[in-house]
Amino acid sequence: MHNAKTTAEVAAGIRKRVFVHAMRNNGGYLSQACSAAEQLAFLYNEALTLGAPTLPPVPPPFGGVPAADNPDYVTGAGYNGPAAPDYDRLFIAPAHYALVAYATLVEVGRMDDAGLEMFNLDGSSVEMIGAEHSPGMEVHNGTLGIGLSTAAGLAWGRKRRSEAGQVCVFMSDGEVQEGQTWEAVQAAAHHRIDNLWALMDVNDQQCDGAMDSVMEVRDIAAKFRDFGAVCVEVDAHDLDALREARATPHPGAPLIILARSSPTQGMSFLQRRFPRLHYVRFKSDDERAEMNASIAAELGIDPVDLTSEAH
Amino acid sequence: MVEIVNRPYASAFEAHALANPDVLCLSADLTSSCEIDGFRDRHPDRFLSLGMAEQNMMSFAGGLGMAGYRPFLHSFGVFLYRRPYDQLIASVAYPRRKVRLMGFLPGITTPGGMTHQAIEDVAVMRSIPNMTILETGDATEVESICAAADSIDGPVYCRVLRGAIPRLFDTPIAVGEMRELASGSDVLVVTSGIATEEALRCRAALAGAGVSIRHLHIHTIKPFDRGALLDHIGSVTKGVVVLENHLIDGGVGSLVAEIMAEAGAGKRLVRLGLRDTFAHGGSRAYLMKHYGLDATALLAGIEDLLGAKTGIAEEDLATARVDAVHSAVKAEAL
């Protein structure tokens, strides 16, 4: 299922939607939209083979957690289409990218924009940290570092069942500080799991700030290769480079694409906040107004009307 | 003389797996220690070696569950919940994956000391939503643990015995039920796992001393049949004694205490097991005696409940079963 927009248009739309949402809601995960817009647009608009959504365009309210007495429970994976043998599966490993992922679903026509208005509202399934019942999610990844392991297990199982669909993980670079990420890569390589690939947003940022100031991770491309993966590094904002990277042969091993990104791409004003970019709040009304005007101009849209009631 | 069965898990798992094509055998570098080395050698296409990396193994198993498989994870009990607890919650328990956690060396059945002794596993697992907990107490229960675990629509943690195991029962585990081993009217004795064998050592002496024991063996710890337990409590006059191979906090003793308190049972309860302490390394017999988990400790607990001595001496209890120190099936060998 593909829509009529180009991937570049989808990426631009993601930044606009996240920006508008953050402006109206007094802050948000802006830098993740800056760094990951092209990557998520690339995944949903062309790289992944996904079926039509199986869930309603406007997300239903939170329907309870998985339990023996909750037989109607479903995950949010239906927004990515059915879990059929020929279709790919996607895990959004850094669950705090949820707003960016939801914006992507809207841009590619998988969710109504009313869904974005439900973000972080009590009783909504469109949660701030993507849960497995949130649109586009299939597993909980809010505890960082478990996504690649889960994907490796699913990929091994799908290969054993001779399914054509692949398993893709969208990852963040902070996850390489978790030991489990390396356990997952060594296991995927040991078991020759090659229907598995990951696209990692390498923005050198984490919650406390620049990664080098929190915990140096050194040459992660070399580390991934040493652990048995095929690894390529590209400019995260260059769609042709992403396409070329995805085409890299990786027989008998998982493919990991390191997408080197800028956490302020398309919103240069955020450079003033470097290196505290994980969650951007406004320090004053003046700063909010200044940011509104500056980023809107760079994105080519009108400033957000801040006089209407915030959602 | 009680029958001793050698390595019942090995053949039981193999038979169950061969009859169920979606069952997979996972190991984290403790393959022969968990008696699945023969399975690995005979059925390599059904065996996944995941190395000393339990966190990945847990989430990987969650992924296998998403693909419709029912992975049996084999390791020592401690390694299935202490290090990979976060993964156990997020990748297995929350989404109710059909992952079967086969935890060997429960409690103090290992000389490996603190790092190897799962003494709080039941407490941890009882507090996890969606989790089922089973415990084996004899060879027949080990032989039936795979089918019992695999019948659960969701994750299940099993305390599995290995090596040379006595056969105490002649019927398989019926999930959700409890075994009534004696139907007396003075004291209700509740035991699970290896504690049941200890209780049986007391039985003849107690009968001789005129103490009427009602004895329940618990193999299904969660879910638990509260009504049945309360019926048994209502059938005795003096009270309840629980003996378990676990801390008294959070295990079967706590479970019984909660049920009694909520129901206003109004009878005394004596909980026996490890008392707010870690254990150290040693033989099973030594540790059971040292930490008060054996037949002698149970006898003392019953006397505490009765408020009187029974006159039974330690030598009156049935002989404890001791494996030959250098036996090939010795359970303590790592």
Strand and helix map with partners:
The complex is a heterodimer of chains A (311) and B (334).
Chain A: H1 7-24, H2 30-47, E1 89-92, H3 98-107, H4 113-117, H5 147-160, E2 167-172, H6 179-190, E3 196-202, E4 205-206, E5 209-210, H7 211-214, H8 220-226, E6 230-235, H9 239-246, E7 255-260, H10 285-299
Parallel strand pairs in A: 1-2, 2-3, 3-7, 6-7
Antiparallel strand pairs in A: 4-5
Helix pairs in contact in A: 1-2, 1-3, 1-10, 2-3, 2-9, 5-6
Chain B: E1 4-6, H1 8-19, E2 23-27, H2 37-42, E3 47-49, H3 54-66, E4 70-76, H4 85-93, E5 100-104, H5 121-126, E6 132-135, H6 139-150, E7 156-160, E8 164-166, E9 179-183, E10 187-192, H7 195-208, E11 213-218, E12 220-222, H8 226-234, E13 239-247, H9 252-263, E14 268-274, H10 284-290, H11 295-306
Parallel strand pairs in B: 2-3, 2-4, 4-5, 5-7, 6-7, 10-11, 10-13, 13-14
Antiparallel strand pairs in B: 1-8, 6-12, 9-11
Helix pairs in contact in B: 1-6, 3-4, 7-11
Give a nutshell description of this structure.
By secondary structure, chain A is of the alpha/beta class. Chain A contains 10 helices and 7 strands. The model of chain B is unreliable at 324-333 (pLDDT under 50).
CATH class descriptor of the largest domain in chain B: Alpha Beta
Structural domain tally of chain A? 1
The CATH architecture designation of chain A is 3-Layer(aba) Sandwich
Please give the most extensive interface between any two protein chains, plus how many residues each contributes: A-B, 33 and 31 residues
Question: What is the ordering of alpha helices and beta strands of chain B?
Answer: EHEHEHEHEHEHEEEEHEEHEHEHH
Would you tell me the structural class of the helices and strands of chain B?
Answer: alpha/beta
The span between the termini of chain A is: 31 Å
Q: Beta-strand percentage of chain B?
A: 15-25%
Please estimate the helix content of chain B: 25-40%
CATH superfamily of chain A: Thiamin diphosphate (ThDP)-binding fold, Pyr/PP domains
Secondary structure tally: strands of chain A:
7
SS class of chain A: alpha/beta
Order of helices and strands of chain A: HHEHHHEHEEEHHEHEH
Unreliable stretches covering 5 or more consecutive residues of chain A: none
Find the CATH topology of the largest domain in chain B: Rossmann fold
Task: Supply the number of structural domains of chain B.
Answer: 2
* SS element count, helices of chain A: 10
CATH class of chain A: Alpha Beta
